[in-house]
Design goal:
224 residues; alpha+beta
């Protein structure tokens, strides 16, 4: 009597660890300690700004007159004197000042660190690339669990290539040289692996065709 096959237990621990690591990353990036805490005036809003190598914020406060007043705040430095819109525009330009005012009610832009719907579209593109890039690992994990050993399928490399190309474009827009360098090297490696897989398949197909032709030839010339 044959024993009933043992059903494999699904390994939930890797999935839980993925969620834990992702949560830790979000907490570090967006948690209360992710950015310096500036002492703002009551009712004021802020927008991040960078001047040379210093990062800080533009503080915009609505005055009783209906006009905005501004201050520049940088970590480790005293706050600038209160400036009018015209004074700040002479320093930073009208576009940046208008962005500080617009950010008052646009929490969506602030969350994504963009200033327009074009930026939102680029973030969406980057998200698609990241989903592909992360999906390759989920795919590889599921296939490996099914076979109870480490397995890398051809689809893993296609997911890697697609995600890498999209993320490379996104990081160009973000002007992030570190991420661009990482994706540029990966794109070449992913493409090379796909090419090697297809070359191997062509060699195997030609070998099978030659073997089949040899078998047919031997049958044709066999003595009656």
């Amino acid at each position: 009597m044959n024993a009933a096959p043992v059903r494999k237990r699904f390994k939930w621990e890797p999935a839980a660890l993925m969620i834990l690591v992702m949560g830790l990353g979000f907490w570090i990036a967006f948690g209360p300690t992710s950015r310096p805490d500036f002492d703002l005036r009551p009712g004021a809003v802020k927008r991040e700004v960078r001047v040379a190598e210093d990062r800080g914020v533009i503080e915009a406060a609505l005055e009783p007159s209906g006009e905005y007043s501004f201050r520049l705040l940088f970590r480790g430095q005293p706050a600038s004197p209160v400036m009018s819109r015209a004074e700040l525009e002479r320093v930073l330009g009208p576009k940046i000042v208008q962005g500080a005012i617009d950010s008052r009610g646009n929490w969506f832009y602030r969350t994504l660190n963009v200033t327009s719907w074009v930026g939102v579209a680029w973030v969406a593109i980057g998200l698609v690339g990241q989903l592909l890039f992360s999906g390759r690992m989920v795919l590889q994990w599921l296939v490996s669990e099914r076979h109870s050993k480490s397995v890398i399928t051809e689809s893993f490399w296609w997911f890697s290539l697609g995600g890498g190309l999209i993320l490379f474009s996104y990081f160009i827009w973000r002007q992030d040289p570190v991420a661009m360098l990482g994706q540029a090297s990966g794109i070449v490696i992913y493409s090379r692996n796909i090419r090697l897989i297809h070359k191997s398949k062509r060699r195997a197909r030609r070998a099978a065709e030659l073997a089949a032709a040899g078998a047919d030839s031997s049958h044709t010339h066999a003595p009656a």
